Amino acid sequence: MHTLLTEVQIARQPILTSDLRTAGWELLHRGAALAAGTADAGSIATAQVLVDGLMDLGRQLSSDDETVYINVPEQMLHQGVVLDLPTEGIVLEVLEDLEDLPGLRAVLERHRRAGFRLALDDVVPDDPRLALLDLVEVVKVDLLAVPEAEALQLIRRLSGQGHCVLAEKIETSEAFERSIAAGATLAQGYFLARPEGLQGFRTSGISTNHVELLRAVRSDELDLRELERLIRSDLSVSDRFLRLVHATMGWRNIDSVHHGLVMLGDRAIKQWVSLLAISSMVVGAPPELLRMAALRAHTCETIQRLRGRDGHLEAFSLGMFSILGDDGRLPPTLVEQLPVTDEVAAALCGEPGEYLDLLSIPLATEAADWDRRMVAASRLGLTSDTVESVYRNALAWSRSLGRSHPTRAQDPDLTA
Questions:
Q1: Which of 240, 241, 335, 391 has the fewest C-beta atoms under 10 angstroms from its C-beta?
Q2: From the centroid of its chain, how far is CA 317?
Q3: Do residues 103 and 61 touch, judged by C-beta distance below 8 A?
Q4: Are the C-beta atoms of 158 and 179 separated by less than 8 Å?
Q5: pLDDT by position in tens, the chain (length 416)
Q6: CATH 3.20.20.450 residue spans of the chain
Q7: Domain range 202-415, CATH architecture
């Protein structure tokens, strides 16, 4: 198998009720971003938690479909990066290192209107963020930042005012019992449970198009054709885009990358491109393999268009993800991790059908297996000359990636 996968490393720690039932999970990043100590480490870690935890692993795996708590730095709140996430079941934690408390109020109100629930993280008795209590649903009181007696007094005061208090950093059974007696209704800490690691896989590769994408979205008027070209020309970016479409809209409502961009709208595109770019902190994959992935994807999508069939996005993803396995075959355990429909998943596992015939066109051409290609073309109602023309156009298009913009002669889709 080609080494185009990297492990997703996310940890989660349970948040429990007073009777020790799970009420939610805090997602934590376990990669190297924070170890680097960069100024943007908090934003990078948050972006990786959002993308790795919620998009790559999925809500069911990362949180058992229960409430998710995520730390969000003040800068990301002001930028509105998370505003286009699905809001259901997500609590955004406001961190303690604030620089602009007055300005943050308007920002938090904006996130509340979008549907997010908010929490204050690591709260202490003299915390300036207590001025924001009217905007949050949960207050997390830190039992280790100050003497425990002061933390318990704060819990009593807040719970007496009707606030939902989460006692965090509980390290002993006695601390848990005293916190609950003081009025905390939720609890989190090493005594209750240490963070547990979650594992999954995603496609790897720092895209050379990330800089171009960031430049493209800075324009006041987005060029959707250019954005489509940049997204489709890179396996890593295409992977993330497909996961985004799947997470926010569902496959059945979108029939192409271009359609997905139109449906997202300018604001969502700009926010998500920034999020995807800063979350891709992995080693680049061989450029030739990425070009081959684009070649297969373009071939499958173009054939589907010529046949007058729906499912252009599914065809594109079929060709793109086939690069992850020998002769396009992937193990079911890997296919389960990919953002593909059941029909595409079956083809990637080698099950006979329309999509496997579709994939056989580029695979057979690469292997110079003309008999196999002829059989697949016949099943799809196409002639050998037609599939040869499609493949040649796709080959010219894929070779143009990274060198210059494809011309109309190179890419038949641009003539439409």
A1: 335
A2: 16
A3: no
A4: no
A5: 445 566 556 678 889 999 888 888 888 765 544 444 444 555 666 666 665 556 555 555 445 557 889 888 888 888 787 877 778 888 999 988 877 788 899 999 999 999 999 999 999 999 999 999 999 999 999 999 999 999 999 999 999 999 999 999 998 989 999 999 999 999 999 877 666 665 566 555 545 566 677 677 767 788 888 888 888 777 667 777 776 676 666 555 676 778 888 877 787 777 676 666 555 534 445 556 667 887 888 899 899 999 998 878 788 889 888 888 878 888 888 788 676 789 999 999 999 999 999 999 999 998 889 999 999 999 999 998 999 999 998 888 777 654 433 332 333 332 22
A6: 6-199
A7: Orthogonal Bundle (1.10)
Give me 346's structure tokens: 């079956």
CATH of 6-199, one of 3.40.50.1360, 3.20.20.450, 3.30.70.270, 3.40.630.30: 3.20.20.450
- Give the count of alpha carbons within 13 A of 33, CB side only: 23
Cα 199 from Cα 62, distance rounded (Å):
9
Tokens of 415: 């003539």
- Tell me which residue of 177, 202, 173, 171 sits closest to 189, measured CA to CA: 171
For 119, 129, 250, 325, the CA distances from 351, given in Å and listed in that order, are 47, 57, 24, 14
Distances (CA, A) of 257 to 173, 313, 369: 53, 6, 30
Which residues of the chain are in CATH 1.10.3210 domains?
202-415
8 A C-beta contact, residue 176 and residue 192: yes
For residue 72, list its beta bridge partners: 94
Q: Do residues 197 and 190 make contact, with C-beta atoms less than 8 angstroms apart?
A: no
Q: Which of 4, 7, 1, 46 is nearest to 28 (CA)?
A: 46
d(CA 96, CA 263): 36
Tokens of 384: 């050998």
Contact 175, 162 (CB under 8 A): no
pTM (2 decimals)? Answer: 0.63
What is the rounded distance in angstroms from the CA atom of residue 174 to the CA atom of residue 370?
Answer: 74
CA atoms within 13 A on the CB side of 184: 30
Distance (Å, whole) CA 263 – CA 249? 9
Distance (Å, rounded) from C-alpha 14 to C-alpha 399?
Answer: 49
Distance separating alpha carbons of residues 273 and 243, to the nearest angstrom: 13
